[in-house]
Amino acid sequence: MPRRTTEERTHGRIDERSYYFYELSADLPDVSRWKGLQAVGMSISNTERRKGDEISVRYYIVSKMLPSEDFASAVRGHWGTENSCHWQLM
Questions:
Q1: Which helix or strand (DSSP H or E) is residue 50 part of?
Q2: What is the rounded CA–CA span in Å between residue 35 and residue 38?
Q3: Shortest CA distance to 69 belongs to which of 15, 18, 10?
């Protein structure tokens, strides 16, 4: 089970993220429903703040085998892109 863990201390909070990446076997039931499905990924984020802790879990279906480090970078890169698309009032 490939796993990658990162920790960031910024903006008055501590973010610990764990990424898991599992290669799927071809005999998985219903695998044909997702063309090219090769793996499943999961990210778990634990954020510690003064007002309380927050845990979130996200799942990903993946059509390309990646090293766990690349999977973690892709997940973080996606949220960076998502966050930069929001309108900001000045």
A1: none
A2: 9
A3: 18
Whose CA is closest to 62, among 81, 37, 88, 26? Answer: 37
Residue boundaries of the structural domains of the chain: 3-84
Query: Per-residue pLDDT tens for 15-36?
Result: 999 999 888 887 888 888 888 8
**What does the pLDDT look like over 37-76, one tens digit per residue?**
889 999 999 999 888 889 999 999 888 888 888 888 888 8
Which helix (H) or strand (E) is 77 found in, with range?
Answer: helix 68-84
Whether the Cβ atoms of residue 19 and residue 42 lie closer than 8 Å to each other: yes
